[in-house]
């Protein structure tokens, strides 16, 4: 392996992890929305109880989003670019 290729491996791994986190986050949010809708239907539309029971889940989602943003920022810092420029990583 050439010396120039070695630093790219951890960066690519970070970027892949960030993408995976985003996918998981979207899935979690969709599942939470479905669960909240089901709870509201089961309880006859009483929104007070689902709102309070979903608070811990919302806090966990926020923590996941924060760690995802941190991972994306770390990847960007290592690449010297922005989080949106992950596809522009040099191939050399």
- Determine Rg (CA atoms, Å): 19 Å
Q: Helix tally?
A: 3
E-strand count: 0
Distance between the termini: 12 Å
Structural class: mainly alpha
- Mean of all residue-level pLDDT scores: 72
What characterizes the major β-sheet?
Answer: none
Task: Classify the beta-strand content into a percent band.
Answer: under 5%
- Fraction of residues in helix: over 70%
Describe this structure in words.
The protein has a domain at 11-43. Residues 82-86 have low confidence and may be disordered. The protein is elongated. The chain is mainly α and 92 residues long. Helix 1 (8-42) runs antiparallel to helix 3 (55-79). It is 72% helix and 0% strand. The N and C termini lie close together (12 Å).
Which key phrases capture this entry?
92 residues; elongated; 3 helices; mainly alpha; 0% strand
Kindly summarize this structure in a few lines:
The protein has 92 residues and is mainly alpha-helical. The chain is built from three helices and no strands.
What is the topology?
Layout: H1 8-42, H2 48-53, H3 55-79
Helix pairs in contact: 1-3
Region (Disordered): 22-92
Biased composition (Low complexity): 27-92
């Amino acid at each position: 392996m050439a010396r120039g290729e070695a630093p790219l491996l951890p960066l690519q791994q970070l970027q892949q992890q960030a993408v995976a986190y985003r996918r998981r986050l979207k899935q979690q949010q969709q599942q939470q929305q479905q669960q909240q809708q089901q709870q509201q239907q089961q309880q006859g539309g009483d929104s007070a109880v689902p709102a309070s029971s979903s608070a811990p889940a919302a806090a966990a989602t926020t923590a996941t989003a924060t760690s995802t943003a941190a991972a994306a920022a770390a990847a960007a810092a290592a690449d010297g670019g922005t989080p949106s420029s992950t596809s522009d990583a040099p191939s050399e």
